[in-house]
Amino acid sequence: QSAERWFMKAMKAYQSGDLIIEEAADIVIKTMWSSNEYLNDFQKYFDEELLAGNPFVEDLRNDPNSMDSLRELFEMCRESGTTAALLLFKYISLLLNAELNQSISQSGTTGPFAHYDHLRPAFRQPSEVDLKEAALLRKIFTQANPNMQDFLTDDIYAAMKYTLLFNCYGFSLEDPSTSASASDEKQSKEFIRNVVKISDAKVIGLFHIASHIEHSSNPNCSVAYNDGSIKIYAQREIQESDSITVSYIPNIHTLEKDVCQVKLLAQFGIIEDQ
In sequence order, which ranges of 229-274 are alpha helices (DSSP H)? Predict the structure, then answer.
């Protein structure tokens, strides 16, 4: 039985332009498809994006087999221009670090990663790429945690990968409301929320609260990003107990209804009544 999904509702009334919430990301990572300074520099990406002060990853540095597999994973992502496997590496390593420090709540309602079971799930059959990524991640983590070989099955990896992608926001390092383009110049297999253009999405972030905000083609809120934090602003008057909604697709008001519905179904599995 799946956990109850969380939704975000207004705790009070807001006026247009009001800041509803600002929160730091549970996990944020620069994308491979836009971070050109990292594309040919594994050590730079490891030090600045994957390590990021995480003691668990620091320990991996001393294991040549784990580092060789991580470098191979990095090269796969670099060649394909995708980021999800590196996002999963960072997410799992932070989970393991929290577990080692016994900081994951047993209640499932608090702590930086306790909300995963309450996210909207996105299940897909593992692709050939998923199978390769999962095998490399098992190699990376098994030395430090032998249980990972049994836990991170191909199906579990695919479920985690697509659930995280579905619930992550993609940002340029500019205000999406001023820089968004109605069309994606570069197609990607990685569909994340509020992407400006897939080639302009510099970072991906998962958030403890904001990742539970529902989509609407007529949203009452807008999204902005600054230095690892997300900001949710009211776009119009919102009453207490109203659902907080954002658009998962940039500039959705410029799209024809049919185009919008196709994008929502193809990218997020959403069928929206309009």
Answer: 257-268
